[in-house]
């Protein structure tokens, strides 16, 4: 009987949350990872090695899978996958019923999204606008220098807690109910990076200075991360002039989970040891 749920990108911030939410729901979980020797998951999780960007490495992984969570990008540079149609072909051949896809956040529809939308799969595409977890990137500077360096520090954002997104994905994978939908998801409030910094400052009872990076400084940082020029262009344009979807709070999380989404204060409380 096909009753397992596969999670790709499980070593990432969102994928890991999906795995733990599925486990709490009593599901049998398969994790797809590019290097299982470097990943740690609970003992009851089945780990298989493979890469969505190289379909020949994932032959057979969908055999016992009824639902799967996929990502639309590859690696830390968020390069859109070119292998979407081949991956979806494999899923259809194995009679996978349901799939969720996490977009790459660059405002483009890649092959993975196009492939699932063109298929007979019961699909849902998730388009969270920004993650509260991005603030974790400030942790080292806060611990060592009590400084945050960020472009466009007063831009509005309705960032979402990664646990809320993981819980939404798990809920859809197990129970469905949101087929053929593209869901734009937000957190419950609009906060700028400056106000997020103030929340962290209050939580750790320390003064934190926030320094706004120029465009040149932001691009220099992103270049060290390996981001492509096109990605940097999109990212800075998004920061400089956020789309309304990025700062307009919606009720997507609450309607799916039946509870209020977590606040940035909750996120700081959950992750306070990062900053001390």
From TrEMBL:
<dbReference type="InterPro" id="IPR051604">
    <property type="entry name" value="Ergot_Alk_Oxidoreductase"/>
</dbReference>
<feature type="domain" description="NAD(P)-binding">
    <location>
        <begin position="9"/>
        <end position="173"/>
    </location>
</feature>
<protein>
    <submittedName>
        <fullName>Hydroxylase</fullName>
    </submittedName>
</protein>
<dbReference type="InterPro" id="IPR036291">
    <property type="entry name" value="NAD(P)-bd_dom_sf"/>
</dbReference>
<dbReference type="Pfam" id="PF13460">
    <property type="entry name" value="NAD_binding_10"/>
</dbReference>
<dbReference type="InterPro" id="IPR016040">
    <property type="entry name" value="NAD(P)-bd_dom"/>
</dbReference>
């Amino acid at each position: 009987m096909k009753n397992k749920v596969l999670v790709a990108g499980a070593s990432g911030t969102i994928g890991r949350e999906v795995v733990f939410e599925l486990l709490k729901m009593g599901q049998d979980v398969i994790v797809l990872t590019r290097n299982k020797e470097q990943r740690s998951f609970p003992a009851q999780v089945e780990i298989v090695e493979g890469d969505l960007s190289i379909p020949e490495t994932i032959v057979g992984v969908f055999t016992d899978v009824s639902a799967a969570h996929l990502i639309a990008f590859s690696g830390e540079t968020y390069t859109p996958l070119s292998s979407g149609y081949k991956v979806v072909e494999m899923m259809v051949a194995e009679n996978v019923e349901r799939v969720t896809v996490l977009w790459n956040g660059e405002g483009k529809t890649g092959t993975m999204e196009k492939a699932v939308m063109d298929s007979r799969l019961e699909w849902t595409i998730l388009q969270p606008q920004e993650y509260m977890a991005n603030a974790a990137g400030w942790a080292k500077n806060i611990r060592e220098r009590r400084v945050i360096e960020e472009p466009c520090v007063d831009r509005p954002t309705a960032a979402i807690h990664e646990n809320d997104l993981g819980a939404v994905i798990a809920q859809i994978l197990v129970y469905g109910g949101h087929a053929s939908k593209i869901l734009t998801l937000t957190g419950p409030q609009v906060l700028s990076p400056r106000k997020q910094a103030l929340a962290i400052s209050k939580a750790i009872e320390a003064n934190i200075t926030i320094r706004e990076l120029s465009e040149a400084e932001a691009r220099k940082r992103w270049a060290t991360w390996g981001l492509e020029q096109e990605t940097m262009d999109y990212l800075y344009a998004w920061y400089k002039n956020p789309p309304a979807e990025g700062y307009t709070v919606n009720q997507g999380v609450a309607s799916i989970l039946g509870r209020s989404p977590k606040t940035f204060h909750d996120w700081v409380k959950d992750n306070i040891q990062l900053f001390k």
